[in-house]
Amino acid sequence: MRKIVVIGAGAAGMAAATRARRFDSQAQITVLEGSGEYSRGTCSLPYYIAGEIDSARSLVGISPQTLAEMRIDLRLGSRVTSIEPAARRVHLGHQSIDFDRLIVSTGSRSRTVPLISQGTDWPRLWTLRSQAEAEVIKTALDRFRPHSVAVVGGGYLGLEMAEVLTQRGCRVTVFHRQATLMRLLPAAHQAIFSLLLERGVTVRLESEVKLIDPSSRRATVEFQDLSSGQRRSEGFDAIFLAPGVVPEAELLSRAGARLGPSGGVVIDSRGQTSLSGIYAAGDGVELPNPYGGKTRYVPLATTAARWGRVCGENAVGGSLRGPAPWGGLAVRLFDSQVASVGHPEDWSRAEEISVELGGNSPFPARGRSVALFLSEARGGRLLGAQFVGPQAAAWADLASLALQKDMTVSDFSELDLNYTPPLSHLWHPFLLAARLAEKFGRREVRR
Amino acid sequence: MRKIVVIGAGAAGMAAATRARRFDSQAQITVLEGSGEYSRGTCSLPYYIAGEIDSARSLVGISPQTLAEMRIDLRLGSRVTSIEPAARRVHLGHQSIDFDRLIVSTGSRSRTVPLISQGTDWPRLWTLRSQAEAEVIKTALDRFRPHSVAVVGGGYLGLEMAEVLTQRGCRVTVFHRQATLMRLLPAAHQAIFSLLLERGVTVRLESEVKLIDPSSRRATVEFQDLSSGQRRSEGFDAIFLAPGVVPEAELLSRAGARLGPSGGVVIDSRGQTSLSGIYAAGDGVELPNPYGGKTRYVPLATTAARWGRVCGENAVGGSLRGPAPWGGLAVRLFDSQVASVGHPEDWSRAEEISVELGGNSPFPARGRSVALFLSEARGGRLLGAQFVGPQAAAWADLASLALQKDMTVSDFSELDLNYTPPLSHLWHPFLLAARLAEKFGRREVRR
After folding, report:
1. B424–A393: do the CB atoms touch at under 8 Å?
2. Helix, strand, or coil here: B68?
3. Backbone phi, then psi, for A261, in 5-degree steps?
């Protein structure tokens, strides 16, 4: 009887455990989770705070009954302190557990922010990594009704929360170090920047937060305008920190596993780390690169769940290869959406084709949109895409499939896409991109 | 200087004319249109009646100024009576025009319905093939305020108008000869059938209309229940006819062009008919089959416009191949959508994989949905798909790309699709389909 131990009960860990059970009805499967939460829908937390999701129960993906039926021994509050690869044993303080195969999914941790330490228990300094933290924010919003909130970080979580907080009546200022939000290209950035402005959100770009001082009634954010070098400060009733994440790979690193440039654990195409019999998945790992270049750090729930499944199956004797991570990301932002697929680091020498669709249609689905396509050469192999507009997420899925199939932008001319007035444009942006590519002299009609 | 003549100023004809100009600045380009309308957005007409599109001008795709700038000589009210292929000449009654290349886009006509002839000028017997007819319906709805309306035909136009008429306050009954609406598979049909029922639309399936008698104040619809054989009749204040279309190929047929089984003109992969120098596109032609089998009759605006472009370019010396028609079709239906891709006639021996997604999410985009995938074998090569739900149209576009790329349903397990709670499901229906395929014993992870 195999002993499978999983560390971490997030998306990757739970996918691993359930998948292992599906392929091995005999294995002894133990999941060790340091916190008191498991299988929580982290991506849903902003909408739980917003009240769009009203039941905390619906945040949990797997019920305790299902776990019992699957004979998965989930131990909450069980923090692993070290791994002994040679002995095939994990330690939890003085206790230890043996394993035949280990799956590590310790996830990520927040980047640090410069904070005056005595303020860390200030009740309106928020992060959002757990349901417990979501409850803190919900309670604080109800009780203190903060008027002004600083959001530190203009990535997707920062922007989602900027929307939620705006809709809860707060006046939001987003501080972002880069010149564009969410690593967007200028045209896509400009579209959501305008959208945020229209909704009353202040966005401070190229603004590095130097110090947060929550030691008085209002917290002070000291920041530097990176273009002018000027240092300023501003006071807020509450602070939401979304500085981005880095891999949490401490346990495996100490055990001798190889790490990649981002600090994530390196795994092979079957999810195994450099330590035999030890697999890893989730926000703590670096993934193989579909383009064959550098490894990828893609801290997303879908990627975590899918590679978790791969590890779970392979830990019980499978030999499944993990899916290539194309880095798809979509966010709803007020009445629009923003989505990106591909990895901006591959785009340094890419050609950009930009399609703008006017918002003069009476149909919401045909509202103002921007579609940007990045390719090897004008009309050549697709490397990525970014979209803003009411259909951005769906377009990104289409681009993701195109990426996976090694399509060129010129190939899009062959696509047969729907047209129906309330739902879509007669000339889909993918078709328009192919036309633009063609105008610039490349012409390939391929079969 | 080439003389290009285009017959018909619909989607295909106007695309042909403008494309020809783009590639040949010298050619003399003449478009002959029998009616007084051109470049009208036929697909938008239901929404013009509904009032969602409020300006008739926005129904027209190309402005007269643009036509003038492009030196396209559009002659409305110019009905071609015959084509002389050998002499390269078209006749309009006594007048004739010479051509070097001819592009015929005469479109389709309605199937006939059994009608007592003296009633044809009854003011509430409607069809919808032109803006003029849309105006008739608009006016009649405002003036007569019909209470009950029969819609004859449960294809996409019938259902679009069932929605429009319901929202204009009419009580609608749809008569449909087949057992499922819109050629849908049972599970997809059942989903929109329920939806229509909830919205107060009566649907009479397997009901063949035997006679429409509009000779008194109310029109009588006599119909036969095909399952029981019983004949019944029912009175209505107005009748909307949407019996489907057949190719209008009279002119080319008389000129000796080869027709296909549907009665449409057969064209080659470059849009040329069996008559040298004569091209055809639009709802009057049959298209090459991407699967290599029988030709296709695909009377859709996107297909017409894209093959029109091909004809226009090739008529001035190009050698463009037309895009394969995957038969994508999407309709908004109240707060849901229905979409189909592929050709039901290819599905007789297909395996069906069905995914149902519950509607218990607070997010509209994750409302109740059905996704059906048809493949050569369980999990094998995709042959088509049908979707009902708030994202049906976008999913159909994804399926269309998958069809074009010869993907199997099992291949979907490789897709990296977006997950963000307000916009999409954690496990996209394409991924769930791949999982189901796998459960049934097929297992291919391909790279």
Report:
1. yes
2. helix
3. -60, -30
B358, exposed or middle or buried, with CB in 10 Å at 0-12, 13-18, 19+? exposed
- Sequential pLDDT tens for chain A (447 residues): 899 999 999 999 999 999 999 999 999 999 999 999 998 888 999 999 999 998 888 788 888 999 999 999 999 999 999 999 999 999 999 999 999 999 999 999 999 888 886 656 788 899 999 999 999 999 999 999 999 999 999 999 999 999 999 999 999 999 999 999 999 999 999 999 999 999 999 999 999 999 999 877 899 999 999 999 999 999 999 999 999 999 999 999 999 999 999 999 999 999 999 999 999 999 999 998 877 778 989 999 989 999 999 999 999 999 999 988 888 899 999 999 999 999 888 898 899 999 999 877 888 888 899 999 999 988 899 999 999 999 999 999 999 999 999 999 999 988 889 989 899 887 899 999 998 998 765 433 332
Q: Tell me if chain A has a CB within 8 Å of the CB of B303.
A: yes
Q: Is B437 exposed, middle or buried (0-12, 13-18, 19+ CB in 10 A)?
A: buried
**Eight-class DSSP state of B241:** E
Distances (CA, A) of B177 to A259, A271, B82, B154, B397: 65, 54, 36, 8, 28
pLDDT digits (tens, 9 = 90+) for A202-224: 999 999 999 999 877 899 999 99
Residues of A in contact with B416 (CB under 8 A): 302-303, 306, 323-328, 400, 404
H helices present in B77-234, as ranges: 131-144, 156-167, 186-198
Q: Give CA separation, A220 vs A58, A62, A194, A239, B114, in Å.
A: 36, 41, 26, 9, 79
B189 CB-side CA count, 13 A: 14
Around Cβ B321, how many Cβ atoms within 10 Å? Answer: 17
Which residues between 380 and 409 in chain A have a beta carbon less than 8 angstroms from any beta carbon of chain B? 391, 393-394, 396-398, 400-402, 404-405, 407
Tokens encoding A218: 């209002």
Q: Which residue of A has its CA nearest to B41?
A: A421
User: Using one digit for the tens of pLDDT, what is the confidence trace for A143-155?
Assistant: 999 999 999 999 9
CB atoms within 10 A of CB A235: 13
Among candidates A277, A313, A284, which has minimal Cα distance to A17?
Answer: A313
Beta carbons within 8 Å of A190's beta carbon, 6+ residues apart: none
Cβ atoms of A354 and A370 closer than 8 Å: yes
Asked whether the beta carbons of residue B426 and residue A305 sit closer than 8 angstroms, the reply is yes
- A336: which 2 tokens? 């629009």
CA angle A102, A311, A103 (to 5 degrees): 20
Region at A218 (left for phi over 0; alpha for psi -120 to 50; beta for the rest): beta
A327-360 burial, b at 16+ Cβ within 10 Å, e below that, comes to: bbbbbbbbebbbbbbbbbebbeebbbbbbbbeee
Q: What are A96-136's pLDDT values in tens digits?
A: 999 999 999 999 999 988 888 665 678 889 999 999 999 99
| Cα–Cα distance, B236 to A112 (Å, whole number) | 71
∠ CA A255-A258-A260, nearest 5°, is: 135
Any B CB within 8 A of A61 CB: yes
Residues 6+ apart with CB under 8 A from B257: B249, B265, B266, B273, B274, B275, B278, B280
Residue that has been written with the tokens 């709803």 in this structure: A332
Cα distances from B139 to residues A431, B49, B136, B410, in angstroms, run: 37, 9, 5, 52
Q: Rounded distance, CA A314 to CA A276, Å?
A: 12
Select from A53, A413, A417 the Cβ nearest to the Cβ of B397: A417
